[in-house]
């Protein structure tokens, strides 16, 4: 525990719920009404510093958080994720996962979601529509990019998790 950490000793009015390994607190600087943070009781800076039981508890708390936000604030969608490290925008060195409720019309064009952390990368769909499609022949290997065979992948928005963008 760090006596100066706002997540170690949050104001009681900020606490949404408490579980054995974590607490959920209302963000002090919310992106939207109902912005919730899930944070472990143990003061550690990153996802990889958490024990597997803490990681599992945090993942399980996502649905409880979404339900609570939907019930208390309403939501048409959610952004869920975390910033790991200063380069990724982490400002408090105590791990915390953001659950941000989204509402129809809260931004002109929400396509791209979390990609907007780097503004020029946000709406890749608009960039694609402005780029001519190449007529390059496709490789014959099934499942390879450009092969014509669909490739499906699930991208869990948890930077630092196995299979996350930096592990590819």
Structure description:
The chain is of the alpha+beta class and 168 residues long. It has a single domain, classed as HIT family, subunit A, CATH 3.30.428. 17% of the residues lie in helices and 15% in strands. The protein is built from 2 helices and 5 strands; from the N terminus they run E-E-E-H-E-E-H. The chain has helices spanning 52-72, 124-130, and strands at residues 15-19, 22-26, 36-40, 77-81, 97-102. Strand 1 and strand 2 (22-26) form a beta hairpin. Mean pLDDT is 79; it is low at 133-168.
Describe, in short, the structure shown.
The protein is built from two helices and five strands, in the order βββαββα.
Key descriptive features of the protein:
HIT family, subunit A, globular, 168 residues, single chain, 2 helices, disordered C terminus
**What does the largest sheet look like?**
5 strands, antiparallel
N-C termini distance: 34 Å
Question: What is the CATH topology assignment?
Answer: HIT family, subunit A
The low-pLDDT segments are 133-168
Strand order of the largest sheet: 1-2-3-5-4
Total count of strands: 5
* CATH architecture type: 2-Layer Sandwich
Oligomerization state of this entry? single chain
* Helix proportion: 10-25%
Number of helices: 2
What structural class is derived from the secondary structure elements?
alpha+beta
Fold blueprint:
Blueprint: E1 15-19, E2 22-26, E3 36-40, H1 52-72, E4 77-81, E5 97-102, H2 124-130
Antiparallel strand pairs: 1-2, 2-3, 3-5, 4-5
């Amino acid at each position: 525990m760090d006596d100066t950490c706002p997540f170690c000793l949050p104001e009681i009015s900020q606490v949404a719920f408490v579980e054995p390994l974590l607490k959920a607190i209302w963000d002090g600087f919310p992106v939207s009404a109902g912005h919730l943070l899930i944070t472990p009781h143990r003061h550690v800076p990153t996802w990889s510093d958490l024990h597997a039981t803490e990681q599992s508890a945090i993942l399980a708390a996502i649905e409880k958080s979404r339900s609570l936000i939907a019930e208390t604030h309403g939501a048409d969608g959610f952004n869920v994720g975390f910033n790991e490290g200063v380069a990724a925008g982490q400002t408090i060195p105590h791990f915390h996962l953001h659950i941000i409720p989204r509402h129809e019309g809260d931004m002109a064009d929400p396509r791209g979601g979390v990609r907007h952390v780097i503004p020029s990368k946000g709406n890749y769909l608009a960039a694609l529509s402005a780029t001519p499609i190449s007529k390059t022949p496709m490789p014959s290997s099934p499942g390879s990019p450009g092969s014509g065979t669909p490739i499906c992948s699930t991208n869990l928005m948890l930077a630092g998790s196995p299979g996350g963008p930096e592990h590819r």
